[in-house]
Amino acid sequence: MLEKWKPKILGFVWVSLLLGLSSCATVFGGKRNTVEVLAGVPEKAQVYLDGKFIGETPFKKRISKYKLQEGSIIEIRKASYQSEYFEVVRKPHTLYVLADILTGALPLIVDVANANIYRPNTNHIEYELKPMSVKQQRISEKPELQEKK
């Protein structure tokens, strides 16, 4: 009796493994990406993601992949210093690409279509803010003196 069910059980196990391992980035990629800003000059600078405060340096935090998108801007700022800006660029994750290729073309298509195969360049951001001149400080303290764009 078991011999009759053996091919069906093996088929079920094979399909389960194939589906479970397919689309590796979608299955294993998670819903968050890491933003890490190393200690720099000056210390305790503020970190902003698309204009919203997210922490102080040194800084490491997992952020929803829906908030950390291609073209997002990470700003590092501190009073009396010029801000530095970093644009988020997403690139294909090599390990996920290889795993998808090994499991077939369909997983690769799924991961590319839902953009889970891409990971942002937000690990190990280094910064060094430059002090503002006295004139720049006065202008930044009085918004009415700033040039209108």
Question: Main attributes?
Answer:
149 residues, alpha+beta, four-stranded antiparallel β-sheet, 5 helices
State the order of secondary-structure elements, H for helix, E for strand. HHEEEEEEEHHEH
Distance between the termini: 80 Å
Order of strands in the sheet with most strands: 3-2-5-6
Biggest sheet statistics: 4 strands, antiparallel
Bin the helical content.
25-40%
Uncertain parts: none
Mean pLDDT: 78
Could you characterize the architecture of this molecule?
There is one protein chain. The protein is α+β, with helices and mostly antiparallel strands and 149 residues long. It has a domain of 75 residues: Immunoglobulin-like (Sandwich), CATH 2.60.40. It contains five helices and eight strands; from the N terminus they run H-H-E-E-E-E-E-E-E-H-H-E-H. Strands 3-2-5-6 form a four-stranded antiparallel sheet, with no helix packed on it. Strands 1-4 form a two-stranded antiparallel ribbon. It has a two-stranded antiparallel sheet with strand order 7-8. A hairpin with a 2-residue loop joins strand 2 and strand 3. The radius of gyration is 23 Å and the shape is rod-shaped.
